[in-house]
Amino acid sequence: MSDKLSLLGLLPEQSILVNVSASDWRAAIRLAGEGLILGGAATADYGDEMIATVEQLGPYIVIAPGLALAHSRPSPAVRRTGLSWVSLQEPVNFGHRDNDPVRLVVGLAATDHSQHTAALGSLAQLLSEPKRLEELLTAPNAATVRHLIANFDPEVQS
Fold first, then answer.
1. Contact yes or no for 42/73 (Cβ under 8 A)
2. What one-character DSSP code corresponds to residue 141?
3. Beta bridge mates, 68
4. CB-CB contact of 7 with 126 (8 Å)
5. Over the stretch 91-118, which tens digit does the pLDDT of each residue have?
6. Looking at 71, 96, 113, 116, which residue is catalytic?
7. β-strands 67-71, 102-109 pairing
8. What pLDDT score does 125 carry?
9. 147 a catalytic residue
10. Is the dihedral angle over the CA atoms 120, 140, 46, 24 positive or is it negative?
11. Cα angle value 62/36/65 (rounded, 5°)
12. DSSP output for 74-130
């Protein structure tokens, strides 16, 4: 297996929610969990596990200004490695001192540690360029998000 995963393969269109509303960080994570369910990557229990992770460990999932990576450990609630994408109409606070408020929540469900690491690496590359991140954040629909990712994704181009 490659040390990188195809982001498009991990992120089906039904797992992308664009310009949605969340009342707080828990609701934002629930939306990310819903995207993982719709894409077949996880069961409803995984959303609860992601919330419990933040309740136990704090808002460390807010990994950059405006960006949260919602995830939990591999568990029986994970059916396959996958991603969800939730861009928020109004940013929400997660309680992170430096990186709040959050505009984008990416959900990650992984079957094991190596899949988790590979997905993180691909995602980090995608989101590391500020101009591309802004285009992704302002994409009007799921098809546009996937198109922007396809233009970047080295696994698709190879």
1. no
2. S
3. 62, 105
4. yes
5. 999 999 999 999 999 999 999 888 888 8
6. 71
7. parallel
8. 87
9. no
10. positive
11. 15
12. --TTB-S-EEEEEEEEEEE--S-TTTPSEEEEEEEE-SSHHHHHHHHHHHHHHHTSH
Residue 76 forms beta bridges with which residues?
none
Query: What pLDDT digit, counting tens, does each position of 32-68 carry?
Result: 999 999 999 999 999 999 999 999 999 999 988 999 9
Q: Give the Cα separation of 154 and 158 in Å (integer).
A: 6
| Amino acid (1-letter code) at residue 142 | A
CA dihedral 142, 112, 76, 108 (to 10 degrees): -20
Is the pTM higher than 0.85? The answer reads yes
Place of tokens 């109409």: 89
Separation of alpha carbons 94 and 91, rounded Å: 10
For strand 62-64 and strand 67-71, is the pairing parallel, antiparallel, or unpaired? antiparallel
The rounded distance, in Å, linking the Cα atoms of 158 and 131 is 23
- Check: CB of residue 15 under 8 Å from CB of residue 41: yes
